[in-house]
């Protein structure tokens, strides 16, 4: 059985409060490359955080993991041009997240939306995921709807962008799904002023069947979104976004902002209408933002929760029990790992997410649609391995070492 899928019917693997009962007598050692090009032995130290089943109601916050897709390495295709998806493994991973009490943010940028996954494949992903969600009574899921089937260009009009949003929102709602309204590259290219954003969002929000989650994705994740909301500075853009939310508050469940700035997120959080939630998209500062302060807190919609799901789940459960210290003990060690995975160029973070899934036995290969496994260096992957060990998110250290050795061997490194 996959190590990340081990659990019993009680949801407890012999541990209390998500903490290990005892340590292994001996941890494995592997030779890893260093930035100075030397090779040195590294002995693992992190006792894995166990897989424990929870329900979403065990958590004091709503928590979505933006989930990746598993490529099919045996497909006959051109990997850079034609995505091939292993649907069984992809959907099994969604069930794993639900078993941990986490929601699934589907067909988002973590699924390589706009970086390998086209709207055609996204539709199939949404359709299949919704079918799986309906087989459970605990499946929290929402789906990304944007305009990525509309190529930005000088002839694209605001009306074209509205129609593109209507098409994708209509598809998601037609499947019975809840919408996450994604940022639009076409809108960023075509808008002449903040009024164009207000027009587009106002039109779409006036039509949705149920409140949506807005997603403001920063330019560090997608350079094509620079200047979103019609303003170059984030603080000025925030004013425009807040005006859009205020004018449509009854159609907005919340907003996810991905600016990698705790200060900006907190500033915006404090200005939201009382009925509108903040979902942190800050993969650098999520622990403190979820914990909150005396003026509020953030819920979560995070790509890193795909990679550290058992830690995220256990930490949220600890927070639900009122054990803030345990929450930080579990999540703070994952922050250096997350900052490494999301290091610039941030848009290549998906490679680290998929690499951890491979190390943890959740897929049998380190291949990605679009050939995106090549976007990070061996040095990056070696440091990711060390940080994952320190964060206790290598589910089976022996398996992780074996698979890391395979990657090293492909790069000519004897481990």
Question: Would you give an account of this structure?
Answer:
With 415 residues, this protein is of the alpha/beta class. The protein is built from 15 helices and ten strands. 39% of the residues lie in helices and 11% in strands. Helix 12 (334-341) packs antiparallel against helix 14 (378-390). Mean pLDDT is 94; it is low at 1-22.
What key attributes describe this structure?
415 residues, alpha/beta, two-stranded antiparallel ribbon, 15 helices, 39% helix
Helix count from the secondary structure assignment: 15
DSSP strand content = 5-15%
Q: Going across the major beta sheet, what is the strand order?
A: 3-4-5-6-7-8-9-10
Uncertain ranges: 1-22
Shape: globular
Task: Specify Rg, calculated over alpha carbons.
Answer: 21 Å
What does the average pLDDT come to? 94
SSE layout and pairing:
Elements: E1 29-33, E2 39-43, E3 63-66, H1 87-99, E4 103-106, H2 119-133, E5 141-145, H3 158-174, E6 179-181, H4 185-190, H5 194-207, E7 212-217, H6 234-247, E8 252-258, H7 262-269, E9 277-280, H8 286-291, E10 299-302, H9 304-307, H10 309-320, H11 324-331, H12 334-341, H13 349-359, H14 378-390, H15 397-410
Parallel strand pairs: 3-4, 3-10, 4-5, 5-6, 6-7, 7-8, 8-9, 9-10
Antiparallel strand pairs: 1-2
Helix pairs in contact: 1-2, 3-5, 5-6, 10-11, 12-14, 14-15
Short recap of the structure:
The chain is α/β, with parallel strands linked by helices and 415 residues long. Helices cover 39% and strands 11% of the residues.
């Amino acid at each position: 059985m996959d190590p990340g899928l081990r659990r019993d019917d009680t949801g407890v693997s012999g541990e209390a409060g998500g903490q290990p009962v005892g340590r292994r007598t001996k941890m494995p050692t592997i030779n890893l490359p260093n930035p100075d090009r030397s090779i040195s032995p590294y002995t693992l130290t992190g006792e894995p955080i166990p897989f424990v089943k929870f329900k979403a109601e065990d958590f004091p916050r709503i928590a979505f993991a933006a989930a990746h897709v598993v490529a099919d390495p045996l497909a006959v295709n051109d990997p850079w041009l034609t995505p091939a998806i292993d649907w069984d493994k992809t959907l099994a991973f969604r069930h794993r997240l639900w078993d941990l009490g986490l929601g699934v943010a589907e067909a988002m940028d973590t699924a390589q939306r706009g970086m390998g996954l086209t709207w055609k494949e996204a539709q199939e992903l949404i359709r299949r995921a919704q079918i799986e969600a309906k087989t459970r009574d605990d499946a929290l899921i929402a789906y990304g709807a944007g305009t990525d089937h509309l190529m930005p260009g000088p002839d694209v009009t605001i009306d074209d962008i509205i129609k593109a949003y209507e098409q994708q929102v209509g598809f998601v709602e037609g499947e019975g799904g809840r919408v996450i309204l994604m940022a639009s590259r076409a809108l960023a290219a075509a808008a002449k002023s903040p009024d164009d954003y207000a027009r587009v969002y106002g039109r779409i929000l006036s039509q949705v069947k149920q409140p949506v989650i807005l997603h403001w994705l920063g330019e560090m994740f997608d350079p094509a979104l620079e200047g979103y909301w019609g303003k170059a500075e984030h603080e000025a853009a925030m004013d425009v976004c807040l005006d859009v939310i205020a004018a449509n508050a009854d159609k907005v469940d919340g907003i996810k902002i991905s600016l990698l700035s705790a200060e900006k997120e907190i500033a915006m959080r404090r200005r939201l209408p009382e009925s509108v939630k903040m979902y942190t998209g800050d993969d650098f500062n999520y622990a403190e933002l979820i914990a909150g302060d005396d003026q509020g807190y953030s819920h979560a919609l995070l790509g890193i929760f795909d990679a550290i799901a058992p830690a995220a789940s256990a930490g949220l459960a600890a927070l639900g029990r009122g054990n803030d210290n345990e929450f930080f003990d579990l999540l703070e060690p994952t922050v250096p790992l997350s900052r490494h995975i999301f290091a610039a160029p941030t848009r290549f973070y998906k490679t680290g997410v998929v690499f951890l899934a491979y190390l943890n036995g959740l897929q049998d290969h380190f291949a990605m649609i679009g050939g995106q496994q090549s976007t990070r260096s061996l040095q990056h992957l070696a440091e990711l391995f060390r940080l994952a060990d320190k964060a206790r998110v290598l589910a089976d250290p022996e398996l992780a070492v074996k698979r890391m050795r395979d990657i090293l061997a492909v790069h000519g490194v004897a481990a």
